[in-house]
Amino acid sequence: MAKKAKEIKEITKDMTVHSVLELDKNLGDVFMGFGMFCIFCHLGSEETIEEAAQTHDVDVEFLIQKLNEVYNEKKK
């Protein structure tokens, strides 16, 4: 029997962009809504959400809030 991945309860700014996309590919729409097309970039596998937000001059706290809203809405 395959092990089930540990369910993430909350997205945090120290997570990589790609690890967030692995939770739900639709979260890419949130990144793109902020003008962050790093979801297509090879750096997304190494760059944290906080680092990507700084690069794109995005308020990381607001981005995290929106990512969690979308992520938690899917779980309902």
Brief overview, please?
By secondary structure, the chain is mainly alpha-helical. The protein has helices at 17-23, 28-33, 49-55, 60-75.
Written description of the protein model:
The protein has one domain (17-75): SP0561-like. Helix content is 47%, strand content 0%. The chain has four helices and no strands. The radius of gyration is 12 Å and the shape is globular. The N and C termini lie far apart (26 Å).
Helix/strand layout:
Elements: H1 17-23, H2 28-33, H3 49-55, H4 60-75
Main beta-sheet strand count, sense and barrel state: none
Helix content: 40-55%
Mean pLDDT: 87
Proportion of residues in extended strands: under 5%
CATH class: Mainly Alpha
Q: What are the low-pLDDT stretches, counting only 5+ consecutive residues below 50?
A: 1-5
Would you report the number of β strands? 0
Total tally of structural domains: 1
- Helix-strand string: HHHH
CATH topology value: SP0561-like
Second CATH tier, the architecture: Orthogonal Bundle
